[in-house]
Backbone:
């Protein structure tokens, strides 16, 4: 099953009422999703670069979208583990793009990875992997 | 060298102007720090529990404080890697306490761990490890 | 329930026939275990220090012992995620001691951490966290 | 600079005298390497599947090869952090293939990822990320 991108976006907005701060769904398919975050002052850390917690929150919502695109609009999947490597400084003033895809979706566990990069740049600014517990369906 | 807790707190507030949202320094010593976060609506996720990104942001600032308590008030240490395991649901309406300590502070790299728990409860809600690049001094 | 150390040791030897290479159980209790590895030539990497894979294998078996001490001698728990930070060079010619303890043991998931250090030295050479899937009992 | 695969293979064999146990270099290029491990009895765990430490050791050497293909045959790069997610059971009797590539190689730090799968199968059995300290050149 693949959830259409429009339904997925609507569900994310319901689930994360403050969530539009954490990105807009650009595209999604079976087990993957691409999101974009317009960087605002609240996302910056001293020195004017995008903060680590902002990148983690974006990775979190993007991979959640990738998981839901595969398992359906189940509200109760929870993150067990997140691992993130910060790779380079985001470009000031550019949106951050997150490309998330599932590596495996089992009956009770899901695992995926996310590449984050500044819009228009190829080199990633961060890479994250996450694992989820999926509730019984 | 150990940075007094008062100086550390002042420095954190300068560095993170929105940072008081991410906790108050309770105590600190040589290579460790304890912080508290009063949970507000902006920290919740659907279902009323504290969101993962909130816990990650608190872990991030608490371990940064622990690192600075050892190396001094150097503004340029950057996080390379964060790994977090989410363990149990935080208790609704309770502050989150973070206890952070460095496992190693070398010349160019620092590594530490953070235990997060709901105030008054012993079992941790999350555990994180982080690594930092320390600029030449 | 706590499994006596003698039963735990016997079970580990059955499960890991080559496993004595990966340490001897020194002590264990409810949700924790301490193991020791005599370092042999097969554990070294160029330069004469203990190899990363050796430290990972020791962390793996020590935390597995800690988990079993809590849940009983269940052969089917599987590792989902391992994260390890290498902190300092082990002392040549000294055994490696692993102290492992569970942070949480739920119905289907277990999470724990391991400190590895050279015998007689306080500073850890590595620190690992791991998560496990626990089969239905 | 890209190190030719033949030179890289020879260097790995010098560095890891027991290392042929941990795979044969199949191909490599600028910042990536592919290795194959013939699974022997010493790599199995109870139940007949490939052990976690075997997969970690293969990931370790494959990403080390990917790093060296970029920075040259420098013997002193050390692993700082390894994070691995175990995804599915390897196919019995099949070699394990590791595809490793660097995500970033900076002046002092390298970060990369590795996909491990059973030969002939598309779904990965594990995915790892690693960070390295690179000595001054």
Residues:
């Amino acid at each position: 099953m693949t959830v259409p991108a429009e339904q997925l976006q609507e569900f994310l907005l319901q689930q994360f009422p403050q969530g539009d701060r954490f990105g807009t769904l650009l595209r999604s398919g079976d087990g993957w999703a691409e999101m974009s975050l317009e960087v605002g002052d609240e996302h910056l850390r001293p020195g004017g670069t995008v903060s680590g917690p902002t990148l983690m929150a974006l990775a979190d919502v993007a991979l959640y979208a990738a998981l839901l695109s595969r398992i359906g609009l189940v509200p109760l999947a929870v993150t067990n583990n997140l691992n993130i490597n910060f790779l380079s400084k985001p470009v000031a003033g550019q949106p951050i793009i997150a490309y998330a895809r599932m590596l495996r979706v089992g009956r009770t566990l899901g695992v995926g990875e996310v590449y984050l990069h500044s819009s228009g740049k190829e080199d990633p600014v961060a890479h994250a992997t996450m694992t989820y517990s999926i509730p019984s369906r």
Remarks:
- Helices of chain D lie at 5-15, 52-71.
- The interface with chain A takes residues 83, 85, 87-88, 103-104, 106, 111, 113, 123-124, 127, 129, 131 of chain D (CB under 8 Å).
